[in-house]
Amino acid sequence: MHSRTQGIGHRLRALGAGIVMLGLAACQSTPTPAAPAPTHEGTNAILWLQTAAEYRAATLQAFRSATLHLERALADPTWSAALEQQGEFGALPPAIILDMDEAIIRSDRFQAGLVKNDGHYSLEVWNDWVRTETSEAISGALEYAREARERGIKIFYVTNRTAEVEASSLATLRKLGFPVEGGLEDLLTQHERPEWGSDKSSRRAVVCRTHRVIQIVGDNLNDFTSGAHSSLDRRLALTNRYADYWGSRWIVMPNPSYGGWDGALFEYDWSLSRGEILDRKREHLKTTEDD
Ligand SMILES: [Mg+2]
After folding, report:
1. pLDDT tens-digit map of 109-148
2. Ligand 1 centre and the CA of 39: distance in Å?
3. pTM of the entire predicted model
4. How far is the CA of 208 from the centre of ligand 1 (A)?
5. Å from CA of 255 to ligand 1 middle
6. Ligand 1 centre and the CA of 220: distance in Å?
7. From ligand 1's centre to the CA of 160, what distance in Å?
8. What's the confidence (pLDDT) of residue 18?
9. Which backbone phi and psi does 119 adopt, to 5 degrees?
10. What percent of the chain clears pLDDT 90, i.e. is strictly above it?
11. Measuring CA to CA, how many Å separate 246 from each of 82, 119, 195, 253?
């Protein structure tokens, strides 16, 4: 067993050796600076999605809340989760609207590839990855979807994946076991019809014509309401306006990696370089000295 004085002696000797090493380094005419640690804007966010027990806990919590509210939603004919729901809808059959990526299925492996290769998103590389059909289910999502189906609730998948990868998206859902009895009819993809842009309102309106939408699951404010492609303040105001919806009508999954919140930080100016975007983002950091 080491005594306290032995321990201090070891440390002093180690310190002495360190000073000698520093002295040697100082004598070298061309000191080599340490290489900067590799970094990427997405590193921590992707690691959280891929490794944090808290991410799993958060999604289980969200789907549990969703499941618990199904009974109340079914029993109340005045209940709708869609702002587009108009007229007499009480007698319509019930449905839920699910976004796909980071709402019920995961794309963190695609994003981890970008981090590791210091790459960035483009529709082309994204669609190539979608065609691999390797997404995994988010914890709790399958159980929730199956419970809804057992209760006779129709499921529509309203995703901003584009129409050209609709078949791969359907295959992925099928492979994972999500209910898709209607095949491609159950998926409402971006640009599938000319009027179906990135704002999902027109697609929610289509579902509302035939069904009472009792819940919406997403990871982006845009999955729930129009007007989310806007400033940070406007996005917060929209979130507050529908404060009563969260957790019962609207179920939001955490996504620290990407989404409208991210674009809003640099006013969606995708012409900026990565460095310029990072500079814009850093301007939003608030310290104790800031207002
Ligand atoms: Mg999503």
Report:
1. 999 999 999 888 999 999 999 999 999 999 999 999 999 9
2. 25
3. 0.87
4. 20
5. 8
6. 6
7. 8
8. 45
9. -100, -175
10. 84
11. 13, 34, 28, 11
The token pair that represents 29 in the structure block: 């005419």
Q: Which two tokens stand for residue 290?
A: 């800031």
For 102, left (φ over 0), alpha (ψ -120 to 50), or beta? left
Centroid of ligand 1 to alpha carbon of 9 (angstroms): 58
* CA 136 to centroid of ligand 1, rounded, Å: 14
Q: Are 162 and 188 in contact (CB under 8 A)?
A: no
Instruction: Specify the 3-state DSSP secondary structure of 215.
Output: strand
CB 281 within 8 A of CB 266: yes
State the distance from the centre of ligand 1 to the C-alpha of 189, rounded, in angstroms.
12
CA diameter of the chain: 85
Cα(24) to centroid(ligand 1), Å:
55
Domains of the chain: 54-255 (3.40.50.1000), 259-291 (no CATH)
Q: Which two tokens stand for residue 267?
A: 């006013």
CA of 218 to the centre of ligand 1 (A): 6
Tokens 């988010």 belong to residue:
138
Nearest Cα to Cα of residue 94 among 53, 151, 38, 26: 151
Q: How far apart are CA 46 and CA 207, in angstroms?
A: 33
Distance CA(193)–CA(205), nearest Å, equals: 13
Spatial neighbors of 248 by CB under 8 A, at least 6 apart, are 65, 69, 72, 73, 215
Residues that place a CB less than 5 A from ion ligand 1: 99, 101-103, 219
